[in-house]
Amino acid sequence: MAFTIAIDGPAAAGKGTVSKAVAAHFGFAHLDTGLLYRAVGAKMLAGVEPVEAAKTLLAEDLEVDGLRTPEVAQAASKVAVMGEVRAALVDFQKAFARRAGGAVLDGRDIGTVICPTAEAKLFVTASAEVRAERRYLELVEKGHEISREAVLADVKERDARDMERAEAPLKPAEDAVVIDTSAMNIEEAVAEAIAAIEARRDA
């Protein structure tokens, strides 16, 4: 039986960690849709035209190293505003969502555009300051030299681009359960997500 869980939210809110944990808990397949855009962004940085990169994207392109760098994140945010890029990636995501055995997809427009009929929808968020601090610590741990101010500016810039774009802007679906992780640890956020999904499943 297909059961789709759509998890949306801004950068560094914890949706990726929550999504992986939710998928493991229910035994569902997981797709970080942001990786699709990162893979296209990485190809663009390598000189490939973005729409061509999106149309020829392969599953193995999501496995390459270097997709988590700040440069690729910015490139991903830029290609994500292109309507033709989004259209090229929609079919990939929709097919994944309805696979047998259940699927968890996380991104920016899963509950609103990709899977509007998903059985469960979550919107995982946190304040820009909290998200920037999390991203800063993550980058420093990976050896990047960057300031807290630069990371906060980057988070706010991405938020503005994601929320104000004409195609599929970042916003909670009307029937999504909003989880604010600003004052939560990972365990609390995951527990709240699982409880919300189980409530939808039981209903």
The tally of beta strands, per DSSP, is 5
Termini distance? 16 Å
Find the CATH superfamily.
P-loop containing nucleotide triphosphate hydrolases
Q: Give helix and strand order, one letter per element, not per position.
A: EHEHHHHEHEHHEH
CATH level 1 class label: Alpha Beta
Give the DSSP E fraction (strand runs of 2 or more residues). Answer: 5-15%
Number of discrete helical segments:
9
CATH topology type: Rossmann fold
- Overall number of domains: 1
CATH architecture: 3-Layer(aba) Sandwich
The main sheet orders its strands as 2-3-1-4-5
Topology at a glance:
Elements: E1 4-8, H1 15-26, E2 29-32, H2 34-45, H3 50-55, H4 70-79, H5 83-97, E3 103-107, H6 110-114, E4 120-125, H7 128-141, H8 148-164, E5 177-180, H9 186-202
Parallel strand pairs: 1-3, 1-4, 2-3, 4-5
In a few lines, what is going on in this structure?
This protein is an alpha/beta fold and 203 residues long. It has helices spanning 15-26, 34-45, 50-55, 70-79, 83-97, 110-114, 128-141, 148-164, 186-202, and strands at residues 4-8, 29-32, 103-107, 120-125, 177-180. It is 53% helix and 12% strand.
